[in-house]
Design brief:
Radius of gyration: 23 Å
Number of helices: 17
Distance between the termini: 60 Å
Strand content: 15-25%
Structural class: alpha/beta
Shape: globular
Helix content: 25-40%
Number of strands: 16
Largest sheet: 5 strands, parallel
Length: 412
């Protein structure tokens, strides 16, 4: 462990108004968890964490803690905040297999979950606990979605996802891998086969383009494709990464671990868009940064940039007249991604917004009765904890919908 979790837990002030809990998107009851741990009730602490956030074991590793729980800890105002992430990780990791998830008796209703990412896993767990029979459909062979195919092993060990798979199966949740809904099977087939409601959590897997000349060349790749299977790529010694978000940091650090010696991230702005820690780790691993660079095109030699002039507030005031050819063996574009359109195209009445995200209300109800959605396919590329927090609201909405549907059927 990077820090001694017992010492960290003992530093907690048990604030009456816990700012750490307010700073967490899913409002993890951090003081209660730490109190239970300090009093020797470790399994209770693990149960509290899991009940509030079924993906607490994941979030303890991949959340942006410096802007959330730890960033709001009052001890951080004059010193070091409590290292909440290490405490949560220790508790969740130690207790995960011990937690007995209580599920209500089966109510005879079936729910289909499309997508085995953070949102889908959350919905499946929560509705199974309420007595529903859940089947998860995923287009890939392993569960996890972005956790499996978008976050590197050194940040999130994939053994954790195997542990979740065992937990899901132990709860009675069925998993159909390598099954794309919108291909051979469509949503209408799911309704035909008796699913009372359907959840869509398919994420965002379509890379966003720069819209410049050269993006189809053989030395150019997209971040979301690269991170899915880095071993499939031979990038060479010199790699240019376009973008400076958290995904770009993952790309740079992965590229370095796969043998590239000269890795540089380029951005239009004057600072990194990633978290401070992720940026610092990328630098520590050996990545370099170039700010104020507008990419013009990509050719066989690498990217071509024009320098940007900015004022003290970061506003663009002009551009360098001359362009700069940067020599790179490979270029990886990492400027976010959007959803694929297969489900919208194959489901009558299912609508998307202008940027391709599924159109829903605040409870995750789509434009088709009985179909709900949450996670990145609704919110865009957000954090894991935001997807889980929203999915808790949607799971309750799905439960209410199915209960009302049963009431209407009984009345008829």
């Amino acid at each position: 462990m990077a820090v001694h979790v017992i010492d960290e837990a003992n530093r907690c002030l048990q604030c009456k108004k816990p700012m750490c809990q307010q700073g967490c998107p899913i409002h993890t009851p951090i003081p209660a968890i730490i109190k239970a741990m300090r009093e020797g009730r470790l399994e209770e602490a693990g149960k509290i964490a899991f009940e509030n956030n079924p993906l607490s074991l994941v979030c303890a590793l991949v959340c942006n803690h410096e802007r959330q729980c730890e960033g709001h800890c009052v001890l951080g105002r004059k010193g070091q905040p409590i290292h909440v992430s290490s405490i949560e990780n220790y508790i969740s990791d130690t207790c995960f297999e011990r937690i007995d998830v209580h599920c209500a008796p089966k109510n005879g209703k079936k729910v289909a979950v499309i997508g085995a990412g953070p949102a889908g896993i959350t919905i499946a767990i929560l509705l199974t606990k309420k007595g529903y029979s859940v089947t998860i459909f995923d287009s890939r062979d392993k569960i996890g979605g972005v956790l499996q195919y978008g976050i590197p092993e050194f940040r999130l060990p994939k053994t954790i996802l195997e542990r979740y798979k065992k937990k899901l199966r132990a709860m009675g949740i069925k998993i159909r891998p390598n099954t794309t809904i919108g291909g051979a099977l469509e949503i209408k087939d799911l309704f035909r086969d008796g699913y009372q409601s359907i959840f869509i959590g398919t994420g965002v897997w379509r890379p966003k383009k720069l819209g410049i000349k050269g993006e189809s060349l053989g030395n150019v790749h997209f971040a979301i494709d690269y991170l899915a299977n880095p071993d499939a790529y031979e990038l060479g010694d010199t790699v240019a990464v376009i973008g400076v978000g958290n995904s770009a940091m993952d790309v740079a650090r992965t590229v370095i671990r796969h043998g590239s010696r000269d890795v540089t991230l380029y951005a239009r702005g004057a600072r990194s868009d990633a978290s401070l820690h992720e940026t610092q780790y990328a630098m520590l691993d050996g990545a370099k940064f170039e700010f104020g660079k507008q990419i013009i095109e990509i050719n066989d030699d690498g990217p071509v940039f024009r320098s940007i002039y900015s004022d003290e507030n970061g506003n663009i005031t002009g551009y360098e007249e001359n362009t700069e050819q940067v020599h790179a063996d490979s270029v990886i574009i990492s400027i976010s991604q959007g959803p694929k359109s297969k489900l919208v195209n194959t489901t009558e009445g299912l609508k998307a917004t202008e940027n391709g995200l599924l159109e829903t209300n605040e409870y995750g109800e789509t434009t088709v009765e009985g179909i709900f959605a949450s996670g990145d396919v609704v919110l865009g590329a957000k954090t894991v904890v935001e997807a889980v927090a929203y999915s808790k609201i949607v799971a309750d909405a799905m439960d209410r919908y199915m209960q009302k549907k049963e009431s209407r059927t009984d009345e008829d």
